[in-house]
Automatic annotation (TrEMBL):
PROSITE patterns: PH_DOMAIN. It comes from the Eukaryota. This is FGD2 protein. One of its GO terms (molecular function) is guanyl-nucleotide exchange factor activity. SMART domains: PH. Gene3D superfamilies: Pleckstrin-homology domain (PH domain)/Phosphotyrosine-binding domain (PTB), Zinc/RING finger domain, C3HC4 (zinc finger). One of its GO terms (cellular component) is cytoplasm. GO terms for biological process: cytoskeleton organization; filopodium assembly. Signal peptide: none annotated.
Length: 169
């Protein structure tokens, strides 16, 4: 089953009386012989339509994180990406192979807060006004990398970092 969130492609399916049904891009190409949906060609992709694999290969930072819910008990584990071509936005995918992000967070203007380690969890937050997102990284080093990348994006710094600015000759 392919939902509207996952695909814009439709093709006639024989088992369903040749009615149009939503299908993935590969099935659309196979069933119709078209290589691209004509009315989509040249259109700008929606904010959540950037494929995770495509974006991850050209990202400032990407990895698995957990986004805790409001009460800090449970949360969503997913694939988080800050793309090079859109460095002011954090995209959240359910998995690295997903075609579309299920959520995005504009980072500009947020504050990044470190949180003390609790129960071996590496916690940090994004906060702006009353909006607070709490994240859990797998390691302390990964937490530091995310905090640095998010802080740069939140400050509006859009160019990639130099390899090691502090390293001397």
């Amino acid at each position: 089953v392919v939902c509207a969130r996952c695909s814009d492609y439709k093709a006639e399916l024989q088992y369903d009386g040749n009615r149009l049904n939503r299908v993935c891009q590969q099935c659309y190409i196979f069933l119709t012989g078209h290589t691209v949906l004509e009315d989509r060609e040249g259109k700008h992709k929606g904010i959540l339509e950037k494929g995770a694999a495509e974006v991850s290969s050209r990202s400032l930072l990407c990895s698995s994180l957990q986004l805790l819910d409001k009460n800090g008990k449970g949360g969503t584990r997913g694939w988080f990406v800050i793309p090079q071509d859109d460095p002011l936005v954090l995209y959240i995918y359910a998995a690295p192979q997903d075609v579309r992000a299920h959520t995005s967070i504009p980072l500009l203007g947020y504050q990044v807060r470190d949180m003390p380690q609790s129960e071996s969890r590496h916690l940090f937050q994004l906060a702006q006004s009353r909006q607070v997102f709490t994240f859990v990284a797998d390691t302390e080093e990964l937490k530091r990398r995310w905090m640095r990348a998010m802080a740069r994006s939140a400050a509006g710094i859009t160019h990639p970092e130099e390899e090691d600015e502090d390293a001397g000759p």
